[in-house]
Amino acid sequence: MAFSQELRSLIDTSSKLWAGEAEVVRTYWTSPVRTLETDLLWIRRQCSKEFNGSGIGEYKNMGVFMGPLTELKEIFGKIDTGEEDSVSRHYVLELIDTLKDEYEHFCLFSDVYDQIKPNNLPSINPHKLETWDEDVALTRLRHSNIAEHGQLGVRASRFTEGGYCTLFREGMRAADLGGQFAPSNKLIAAACKEIYEDEFGHMLEGIAGLGREGWSAEEFKLMEELVVSQLRHRVLMRNAEFSFPLSEERILAIFGGEIEPEPFDYIAAESHLALEAAE
């Protein structure tokens, strides 16, 4: 599949903001702000996103767990009925896969939490997890984009979801870091590697799949505005999640383009889409 000029432009525009999110995580691993307490904090916050996260058009904005679960219950009686409101069995399978993946990611990070926490600290109770201001702002922006722009808003949110897997990619790379956090780094890296392998294909579809959906040049222009705004919010969200390893001045410099872009793997994207088309 050939990537349109509009899609390439959107990817190029996004690449420096992906790099900014990656810099947040990469900087944190060796930052003086890092402590056991900040490690436990970011893992709790990430578990909140994996268990309760909402923002990309999940069913009735109910989140990555309850959204698919509720939708599955409501469409169960419509699977392949042949009626006007019939639901494809393959769509149902996608929902089940999504639910399994997100819950597994919550479990992986919770397992890391249990292995590094003090013995007197309880395990994560997912029903008591709390979000944080910057994540609330990102979710609010996505919901607003979806409400105002419909499917284009959903598609912009899917494009930005995961920030090109930056957390998981940088998490995998932490395995080779030494120092006092070396044991934690190896546990984090192992979890991130497993999640990255789950997410990479979904991420590519969210980005590269735009090229076959027939968006006009004018729609791509609007989508770029939404994507840039969401990706900037993602950098702010991630910086807060990791206890602010980057200064406000550095964040503004990133927003101004003062950073090397995160290269997009066009070969992997084309291979993934070609395999998917052949199925």
What does this structure look like?
There is one protein chain. With 279 residues, the protein is mainly α. The protein has eleven helices and no strands. The longest helix has 28 residues, at 89-116. It is globular and about 60 Å long. The mean pLDDT is 90.
Radius of gyration: 19 Å
Distance between the termini: 15 Å
Q: DSSP helix count?
A: 11
Strand-residue fraction? under 5%
Counted beta strands:
0
Instruction: Determine the structural class based on helices, strands and strand pairing.
Output: mainly alpha
SSE pattern, N- to C-terminal: HHHHHHHHHHH
Helix residue percentage? 55-70%
Keywords summarizing the entry:
279 residues; mainly alpha; 11 helices; 0% strand
List the helices and strands and how they pair.
Blueprint: H1 5-29, H2 36-52, H3 66-75, H4 89-116, H5 133-149, H6 151-160, H7 166-173, H8 182-208, H9 217-241, H10 248-255, H11 266-278
Helix pairs in contact: 1-7, 1-9, 2-4, 3-4, 4-8, 5-6, 5-9, 6-9, 7-8, 8-11
